[in-house]
Amino acid sequence: MVRLQLPIVAEEQAIMEAIYYNSVVIICGETGSGKTTQVPQFLYEAGYGSKESPGVRAGVIGVTEPRRVAAVSMSKRVAQEMALPTSVVSYQIRYEGNVTEKTAIKFMTDGVLLREVEQDFLLSKYSVIIIDEAHERSVFTDIMIGLLSRIVPLREKKEMPLKLVIMSATLKIDEFTENKLLFPTAPVVINVESRQYSVTVHFNRRTPNDYVNESFRKVCKIHRTLPAGGILVFVTGQREVEHLCRKLRRQFPSKFGQTSATAISRKMKHKKRHVKRSIVKVNLDDYSTEPTIPLRPDSLDDGEIADVECSSESEESDNGLLEGDGDLPLHVLPLYSLLPSDKQAKVFKVPPTGYRLCVIATNVAETSITIPHVKYVVDSGMVKQKVYDNVTGISTFRVTWTSKASANQRAGRAGRTDAGHCYRLFSSSVFQHHFPEFARAEISGRPVDDLILQMKSMGITVVENFPFPTPPKDEAIKAAEQLLVNLGALKEEKTSSGSVQRIVTSLGLVMAKFPVSPRCAKMLTLGHQNGCLPYIIALVAALSVKELFMDSNLPTSTSADMSEEQHQERQYSLRKRWAGQGGAELLGDLMVLLRAVGACEYSGNSEKFCSENGIRYKAMSEVRRLRLQLTNAVNGVVESSFLCVNPKMVPPSLEQARILRQIVLAGCSDHVARRIPVDTVNERGIKKAQIGYECLLTDDVVFIHPTTVLFRLKPDFVVFQELFETSKLYMRNLCAVEPDWLSVLSPHLCSYSKPLEQPPPDYDTQTGTVKCYMTSTFGKRCWCLSAQRLDFPEGLDKFKWFARFLLEGKVLPKLSKFVPLLLSKPSTMIKTWSKLHKRTETLLVALVQRNVNCYKQLKLELESNEEYLLTEYLVWVPKDTHSEVRHMWPPM
To answer: Which of 815, 799, 795 lies closest to 807 in space, CA to CA?
Structure first.
């Protein structure tokens, strides 16, 4: 392994030499080095793009980004810096792109490249693949790196070399250079230890309890005392972003219309001159939000005096200060993933004249994007992560410390366009001892059923042998494979060594073609019944997009003053209006999603309609695009379907709603919950007013959320899409199901009794199979289910009953005329002493040897051998009928 540490002037030459002489190169360095834009430009000029150069094979330079917004923005930035049209420097994300035949540099998300691997494993049209921001370690990133570690040597053998460049500012290098399964020969590592601009980091003396309020106070101090420059604040989620934006806007209201922009500009210039003259130190652990003497940036450094208590006032105490000076204008903008794209784009625009830009963001602003004019970063040090239980699949949102690597990324945002400062709202001691070095790879903290299905469909049978940079946990792989077996996507086969191997089925190959979770893919494969496929496509699209509804359709100021109970009641009323009445209501939250999608399409998908009805316009736009994508995918799988997206899709009928519930149950059979019986409520320590449910995933009691349309109905059995934990374990996206469906649609989770004697087994002429009644228990909790008419279980008794119905003329009606003439009663076949009669034993052996216990198999045997069963049947009838029997055989 070669590890180079370079001065800035030698970077370009060293990077180009490393890429030219090596197949795999890792480029790492501090945030702000600008390699994301420079490396593609270096490669293009060296002939790796659309130009030919001696010894270099021309092809497309592919650059992957972990986020869509990064792929789009980086494409535009590189095109602008290189003075090339977008037809040459292009992007491709899930739903859109501007790629042309002239494209030489292509920015895309990891998932787009993974789909291309499925179509062309060798990625023949690419000469270089650049994996950017590899430290974010999304599932797709890990899979792509593993695949590319095998594609690169294959391309080398075929004399069509492919270069792999892995770039990150804060990558955990050891997982790549010391992983012999991933890279047998350690790749070249180039360390770039220089920023474009310096960033000074300041720690708090003590770590506050209320980091949101502390962020507000710090922004106020920066804005009133420090020279011009944008402010970027990192908090954990949308609610914190909106809350902080409201506070800052009240503190620094817009003055356009009261004071001219020119006057504001003059005031800001005067403020800058005043800053240069006034240099004093203050204690930022004891400051107010009132205006004070302007300071230098380094005077906001709180030092490391451990015995000084950090002030952390409540929002109510701050409100008394909000009536102070308000003539300092601040342009406050939010930035989070669920924000509409047009509002996200506002942070990249120049703020109004005389205004200071202040962006309140989640970790979406941590990497890949550059917000102009940011000079000050305020870092809360916190991040909201979705934590999964690998076995149960229960998800919990937890606010935890971010990693040291992520904190350094955040600090680097202040040095992208000028020298800056980062103010960390925690002490250096907390940073040193409580922050992990690197963020956990996504693949080690989420279910991997979709990942396993994709890999199996690509021919990767033994997942454990795949060269993951960080392999998923064994229990996660086992849980994913078991789920896929239950869904019918995988089947178990024994190898020559005697071990059991799970391979993909034909159903699994079809499911893998749909870009959704395996559960939703199973629903799509079953959706053709009774004209339900358009509804299933719309439903799957809505389920695949998170947070379709807003927290409230009331104005923000009104919503903020509502109690939690009032807020939940408002949400319940909104969803109840969408759900409908009667049988449609039993489809629950899924009917709400269907009606919302249909009504939004009917209105032309207008932003006004979404706002008035509590729907996120950005989420609904994504549903619309995914609905179109799934429709095309279904048409590609089933060529005769000829589906189209109906903009005026009417709500499903009652019968269709019932079938939709059954289809959802078939896809989520392990997500069934049963209401706890009233007589055992007290034993479980639950209040009768809060009737809970028990499910198969956890021993804890789960509840229907108060905003769910089934909250007051409380059906006996429900199926849910997801469990999430807040103050309790709640089920999300529910619909009611009938207990009689469980044994029919989820046989793999049922334990059946022996066939009941009463009612006795019978022959189903429509299916041509032997049916019987059996009681069953469902799941590990052994919920007792009533007797159901099901297929007779496989075994010798099934052959006996089939033989009886054959002799009775129920299987082949032409034989019914001989029933009165039979030498023994057909019921003899099922007697315990049937072996005492030679004719019963002969007929039974003939059926067992050819595995004939249904009409379909019998028909196949008679078509291939017209005299099949003739000899065995003749011993059952008198000799004077033998000629007639021979003449009409086979009796089809």
So the answer is: 815
Identity of residue 745: L
Question: Into how many domains does the chain fold?
Answer: 6
- Pairwise CA distance, residues 740 & 208, whole Å: 56
DSSP secondary structure code for residue 583 in this structure: G
pLDDT in tens, 851-882: 999 999 999 999 999 999 999 999 999 999 99
Are residue 521 and residue 644 in the same domain, yes or no? yes
Are 390 and 460 in the same domain?
no
Instruction: Extract the residue ranges of the chain whose pLDDT is less than 70.
Output: 1-11, 30-36, 50-57, 193-196, 255-328, 367-368, 389-395, 551-564, 566-567, 581-582, 639-640, 679-690
335's CB contacts (< 8 A; 6+ apart) are 241, 344, 347, 359, 360, 361, 362, 364, 365
Query: How many Å apart are CA 502 and CA 261, to the nearest integer?
Result: 69
Task: Give me the residue label for tokens 């799988």.
Answer: 637
- Pair 778, 716: CB distance under 8 Å: no
Range of the domain at 846: 796-888
Distance CA 372, CA 229 (A): 10
pLDDT value of position 689:
46
180: domain CATH number?
A: 3.40.50.300
Please check whether residue 128 is in contact with residue 59, taking contact to mean a CB–CB distance below 8 angstroms.
yes
Q: Which residues in 241-252 are b (16+ Cβ under 10 Å) and which e?
A: bbbbbebbeebb
Single-letter amino acid code for the residue at 284: L
Last residue of a domain, one of 461, 478, 509: 509
Total-model pTM: 0.76
Q: Are residues 382 and 478 in the same domain?
A: no
